[in-house]
Specification:
Blueprint (H helix, E strand, L loop, with lengths): L9 H10 L23 H4 L15 E2 L3 E13 L5 E12 L8 E16 L7 E3 L16 E3 L1 E2 L2 H8 L18 H10 L8 E8 L3 E6 L9 E5 L5 E8 H8 L10 H7 L8 E7 L1 E4 L7 E3 L1 E8 L9 E11 L21 H12 L11 E6 L5 E4 L4 H4 L8 E3 L2 E3 L4 E2 L1 H4 L13 E2 L19
Parallel strand pairs: 1-16, 4-8, 4-9, 4-12, 11-13, 12-16
Antiparallel strand pairs: 2-3, 4-7, 5-6, 10-11, 13-14, 15-16, 17-18, 19-20, 21-22
Helix pairs in contact: 4-7
């Protein structure tokens, strides 16, 4: 996905914040039942650093992770502007790893950087909130009147996150041996083209934690962040952040420096251009265009583009990354009533982002690789890029239960390459269009005009 997003009512926001003692506080039930949508992060929107080579035969001219290229033939429309397109029938893609016909295991270094959210007042001082019966209706008498520092840490979720199916092995029909879910999806989409011993695996390890400082705006400006307390009055059930504020604190503005989360990780050598880096946030979601009505982004994948340095032959550097939030049960779904394959929680976001990173590591940035014929899913979502999670995210039963060490995770089912190729008879495993749940996508998108006629 580029981003997962939900919508909510501004009137509710106004009534809730009127009760809050601290600007931006909302109810813990604020997110329940919100509908998933998406947006695209564009790497060049964060910063422009000279000419970017068209990556025919990646990685020529670029210092980045191992990837292979391919192409397919399908009739479609290639957009040349927002209102015009041309007929096109040969489509190229780049994917993480080595070609399926080559076989063997490609290990990708996968650092995980936990990020704490440090919320500040408009004057930059540490933000606090006092628990009351209004902002913490489930607090006990002993928990009321506490002065709570607004610091949201990923520590309670880090161990479960590292032990999830995105990094640990489980049984899948696409692999003769237990493997990681993203590898299982990639193996499924190439079907018999893949040699039996072909794997692309993530070698995950925790790196030192980083802190993202968020400074609240003063009214009447839109809030920089919103938050909700846990049921016991501690911080925080979730934090909502303005997308521009979040991006400015995540990506370095020019060259890597210590003022941003990703810049510090680059400077300190915690991540490299050969990695898929994950920035783990604790129930931290985004709203877009400075408008809380356009909430909530739960993750995105992208890359940080940096100029070359003498030690790498002055090749431009692409640091491939994903921001993904752990999602606690009950924020978007009711754990007591959601079906096992329809619970949006725990690692749903990161599994979505990693699958899309494998299939579209450079987010179609060159206008060539991973651009596809326009497609539309059954829920009406329209795109022209190979974002395998976006196809599924707003359909029925988007997740699958995977139990590891006694904990049941909910990674997302993903669309497979033949679906984007408009193959009438899918060449993927079992002739499927989706995996691990092969029943989510049972038919192709109808051929679509420019922007699906929207």
């Amino acid at each position: 996905m580029r981003k997962l997003a939900f919508c909510f009512c501004l009137a509710s926001l106004c009534s809730l914040t009127a009760l809050a003692q601290t600007r931006g506080q909302v109810s813990k039930t604020f997110l329940q039942g919100k509908h998933i949508t998406h947006t695209h992060p564009n790497p060049s929107a964060f910063k422009v650093k000279g000419n970017i080579p068209a990556p025919h035969g990646f990685p020529a001219g670029v210092d980045t992770l191992t990837n292979f290229t391919g192409h397919f033939t399908a009739q479609g429309i290639y957009p040349i502007s927002n209102t015009a397109g041309v007929a096109h029938n040969v489509w190229e893609y780049s994917m993480v790893g080595n070609p399926p016909e080559q076989g063997g295991t490609t290990a990708i270094n996968a650092p995980v950087i936990p990020v704490t959210i440090d919320m500040r007042n408009p004057d930059g001082s540490p933000a606090f909130v006092t628990t009351t019966t209004q902002n913490c209706p489930t607090c006990t008498p002993a928990q009321l009147g506490q002065n709570i520092r607004l610091l949201s840490s990923p520590d309670p979720f880090t161990s479960l996150f590292m032990n999830g199916p995105q990094f640990q092995n489980a049984e899948y029909s696409s692999s003769p041996v237990p493997t990681q879910i993203t590898d299982a999806v990639q193996r499924a989409e190439f079907g018999n083209r893949a040699r039996q011993n072909w794997h692309t695996l993530l070698s995950a390890h925790l790196q030192p934690a980083q802190t993202m400082v968020l400074t609240q705006t003063a009214a009447p400006a839109p809030p920089a962040y919103l938050f909700s307390l846990n049921g016991d009055g501690t911080c925080c059930a979730f934090v909502l952040v303005s997308d521009p504020v979040f991006s400015s604190q995540l990506f370095p503005p020019s060259t890597p420096d210590l003022t941003t989360v990703m810049g510090a990780a680059e400077v300190e050598g915690e991540i490299t251009t050969k990695d898929i880096s994950t920035f783990l946030f604790p129930n931290t979601y985004l709203f877009e265009n400075n408008d809380p009505n356009q909430c909530c982004v739960l993750g995105f994948h992208s890359f940080d583009l940096e100029q070359g340095i003498p030690s790498n032959g002055n090749l431009q550097r692409f640091y491939v990354m994903n921001y993904a939030s752990w999602t606690s049960p009950g924020l978007f779904d009711d754990p007591a009533t959601c079906a096992p394959d329809n619970c949006f929680e725990d690692v749903t976001a990161v599994s979505h982002e990693l699958a899309e990173t494998f299939n579209d590591p450079f987010v179609g940035f060159d206008g060539i690789h991973n651009i596809t014929p326009f497609w539309q899913n059954a829920a009406g979502q329209c795109q022209d890029i190979m974002e395998v999670g976006d196809v599924i995210e707003d359909l029925t039963n988007p997740t699958v239960p995977i139990t590891i060490n006694g904990f049941t995770y909910h990674p997302q089912t993903e669309a497979l390459l033949p679906w984007f190729e408009f193959q009438g008879n899918s060449s993927a495993l079992h002739n499927a269009y989706s995996y691990p749940n092969e029943t989510v996508l049972t038919a192709l998108s109808a051929p679509q005009p420019l922007n699906c006629g929207q």
